[in-house]
């Protein structure tokens, strides 16, 4: 009998290859703790630092993508309806019609 042909390894999609934000952040916190303890040699510390920089870059890119998604959803999904008294134009209202409650409006805030 002949052996069946070996199966090709399954290709991972781009989505499954990238670590999730929470996983990256958790690993980054581990690296920071290891570096703060100071028990690593110079070469190991440098490798940890490089990994941390790469994780930080990835986290920032993911956050930018999340922010863009929230802003896109906010444009269409969070428009006030005509009868909502919290969004009536007038004094004491922050940018976008929301009551300010003494908090300055942040143009970069998603809500």
Radius of gyration: 24 Å
Q: What is the distance, rounded to the nearest whole angstrom, between the alpha carbons of the first and last residues?
A: 66 Å
Compute the number of helices.
Answer: 3
**CATH T-level topology of the domain at 19-77:** Helix Hairpins
The CATH architecture designation of the domain at 19-77 is: Orthogonal Bundle
Helix/strand/pairing category: mainly alpha
Unreliable stretches covering 5 or more consecutive residues: 96-103
The CATH first-level class of the domain at 19-77 comes to Mainly Alpha
| H and E string | HHH
Instruction: Give the percentage of residues in beta strands.
Output: under 5%
Main sheet properties: none
Written overview of the protein:
By secondary structure, this protein is mostly helical. The chain has a domain at 19-77: Helix Hairpins. The protein is 51% helix and 0% strand. The protein has three helices and no strands. It has helices spanning 14-17, 21-37, 42-77. Helix 2 packs antiparallel against helix 3. 2% of the residues are buried. Belongs to the XseB family. It holds the Pfam family Exonuc_VII_S. InterPro entries: Exonuc_VII_S (IPR003761), Exonuc_VII_ssu_sf (IPR037004).
Q: What is shown here, in short?
A:
Belongs to the XseB family. This protein has a domain at 19-77: Helix Hairpins (Orthogonal Bundle), CATH 1.10.287.
Q: What topology does this entry show?
A:
Layout: H1 14-17, H2 21-37, H3 42-77
Helix pairs in contact: 2-3
């Amino acid at each position: 009998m002949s052996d069946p042909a070996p199966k090709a390894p399954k290709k991972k999609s781009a989505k499954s290859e990238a670590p999730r934000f929470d996983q990256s952040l958790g690993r980054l916190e581990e690296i920071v703790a290891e570096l703060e303890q100071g028990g690593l040699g110079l070469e190991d510390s440098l490798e940890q630092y490089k990994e941390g920089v790469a994780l930080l870059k990835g986290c920032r890119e993911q956050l930018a993508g999340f922010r863009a998604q929230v802003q896109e959803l906010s444009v269409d999904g969070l428009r006030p309806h005509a009868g909502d008294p919290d969004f009536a134009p007038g004094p004491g209202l922050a940018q976008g019609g929301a009551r300010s409650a003494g908090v300055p409006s942040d143009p970069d805030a998603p809500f």
